[in-house]
Amino acid sequence: MSNSGTPSSETPPATDSAQEAFGSTSTTPAPAPAEPSGPPASPTTVIANHKKKDTSKVRFQAIGNAPILKQKVYTITASNKFLAVIQFLRKQLDYKHSDPLFLYVNSAFSPAPDEIVHNLFKCFNTDGKLIVNYCTSPAWG
Amino acid sequence: MPPQPDKGKTTATASSSSSTPAPHNPIAKVIWDGSIPIQFTWDQAEAAAVGSNAVESFFYEAPRCSYFSLLTSHVRKHFVDMALHFIGDDAEVWYDYEGTPLKWHYPIGLLYDIHGLQASAGRGANGSLLPWKITVHFQNYPADKLIKSQAIDSCQDYFMSMIKEADYLRNGSTKKVMNMSKSDQTQLWDGLSSNNYDRFWGMNHKLMLNDGVMARNLPIRIYLPETCPVIQEPVSPVDENSQPKTLRQILHQSLPDLFPLVETGLPVAAAMIHGITPNLDTSAIWASQNMSYPDNFLHFVIIIK
């Protein structure tokens, strides 16, 4: 829980490192569980492995009157919460806290700020990118 | 004399236009009826600051499927009647268990399974945790730990977002929810917030049965101990031979070390939902359709043995 949710842990362009971290994600969104070799990991190891960091690519798409970003695809630490995506986008748009901004995944639903980016990526990515739509008034309820 | 209209038919037509009754489902009903007795105590420092050191606790039997936001008006009223001078918004009220702030957008039963049962199993403690002792705060909202909602009815928006996310996992779009009329969508939340099983399930079964179409993925979240990030990934309900997967197969996909396909020794972990540990040979699609929380997700809390 230490630094997740902090906007500072984002690494904006860094397209190359994203390639490394994410090799084949565009074809296989769900990593196949590896054949267990040797004895199973202990619960402590399992929990530690699930806290590891990774990156996900996010593509921002403006809707309606929302300003368009010059750069649309960013690499974001996957263990971050969706809140980090919200805060990052606000910073890019130079929006104040009071300015209304609504974010959706795949033009369909609005994740809670504490959802994990990696989970959203695994479940909803399109061609290796998590599509995040944003607008200044509620669009899909 | 003209023939009397067929009474049975008339009432059937009339009722189907308003709302369909919930289908008979004893499993969904007992899950809906699950509850947790809670003892709400006012934060000592807050009470002492206004010179009220001996304010009585508030006892409430909360439905497991409900949310703390839905109890806030009752809780606030109790403490206002006692001593509290509170002119703030109900969205300022927050709850903690043993110092951990509780998420208002998680179902109460899920919070109890995580912070009560999972945590006490981790300490090797046994003995009853009931009534569940919750501390109520009317000040100092921990905005760094809990989502700060603009209003108390944000809970409804978060709930509907979960329903849509679940629909997206099952169908690759939210058409099933978006094609519902506004009042049909509202019926889900109204049924939940008024603890009306028939109202909720009368609408929810349409989402659950998915028009008989096999879901692409099941809406499942898995909670490991020690504030490990929640696990959610695409989980197909069927294997490569189109046979329904069991809960064990599903859990094995995400946590192969904790849930081997063939148990060779004593199990190292158990998966809990609604406070019980279902048989892992249970069909996963059946579990999803019958044992999901009202937000349409199966929330599995992992207990390490």
Describe this structure in words.
With 141 residues, chain A is of the alpha+beta class. Chain A has a domain at 55-135: Roll (Ubiquitin-like (UB roll)). In chain A, 25% of the residues lie in helices and 16% in strands. Chain A has helices at 15-22, 43-49, 82-93, 117-124, and strands at residues 55-62, 73-77, 102-105, 130-135. Chain A starts with 14 loop residues before the first helix and ends in a 6-residue tail after the last strand. With 305 residues, chain B is α/β, with parallel strands linked by helices. Chain B has helices at residues 7-18, 26-33, 44-49, 68-82, 108-122, 154-171, 175-178, 182-193, 197-209, 247-254, 284-291; strands at residues 35-42, 58-63, 94-97, 100-101, 132-137, 220-223, 269-272, 298-304. Chain B has a 5-stranded mixed beta sheet with strand order 2-1-5-3-4. Chain B has a 3-stranded mixed beta sheet with strand order 6-8-7. In chain B, a hairpin with a 2-residue loop joins strand 3 (94-97) and strand 4. The model of chain B is unreliable at 1-18 (pLDDT under 50). Chain B: Residues 10-22 have a biased composition (Low complexity). Chain B: It is found in: Preautophagosomal structure membrane. Chain B: It comes from Entomortierella chlamydospora. Chain B: This is Autophagy protein 5.
Summarize the structure.
The complex is a heterodimer of chains A (141) and B (305). Chain A is of the alpha+beta class and 141 residues long.
Total helix count of chain A?
4
Instruction: Give the N-to-C terminal Cα separation of chain A.
Output: 30 Å
Q: Biggest sheet of chain B: strands, sense, closure?
A: 5 strands, mixed
Main β-sheet description of chain A: 4 strands, mixed
Shape of chain A: elongated
Structural class by helix and strand composition of chain B: alpha/beta
Q: What is the number of domains of chain B?
A: 3
Strand coverage percent of chain A: 15-25%
What is the subunit organization of this protein?
A: heterodimer
- Helix and strand succession of chain B? HHEHEHEEHEHHHHEHEHE
In the CATH hierarchy, the third-tier topology of the largest domain in chain B is known as: Ubiquitin-like (UB roll)
- Using CB atoms under 8 Å apart, which protein chain pair has the greatest interface? A-B, 34 and 39 residues
Number of helical segments of chain B?
Answer: 11
List segments of chain A where confidence is low: pLDDT < 50 over at least 5 consecutive residues.
1-34
Radius of gyration of chain A using CA atoms only: 16 Å
Name the shape of chain B in a single word: globular
Strands ordered across the widest β-sheet of chain A:
2-1-4-3
Judged by helices, strands and strand pairing, the structural class of chain A is alpha+beta
Organism (chain A): Entomortierella chlamydospora
Function (chain A): Ubiquitin-like protein involved in cytoplasm to vacuole transport (Cvt), autophagy vesicles formation, mitophagy, and nucleophagy.
GO cellular component, one term (chain A): phagophore assembly site membrane
Membrane topology (chain A): Peripheral membrane protein
